[in-house]
């Protein structure tokens, strides 16, 4: 897992947390964004 800065693969909960935030009132002013949920993975 040296390619991932956080040292582990993502879980379904990691992705669900981001999705939950995007559909919450906290993100009401966010439009047209793309967010990588990759733990800081570096492509080589």
TrEMBL record:
Pfam families hit by this protein: adh_short_C2
Matches recorded under SUPFAM superfamilies: NAD(P)-binding Rossmann-fold domains
Name used for this protein in its record: 3-oxoacyl-[acyl-carrier-protein] reductase
Species for this entry: Lentilactobacillus hilgardii (strain ATCC 8290 / DSM 20176 / CCUG 30140 / JCM 1155 / KCTC 3500 / NBRC 15886 / NCIMB 8040 / NRRL B-1843 / 9)
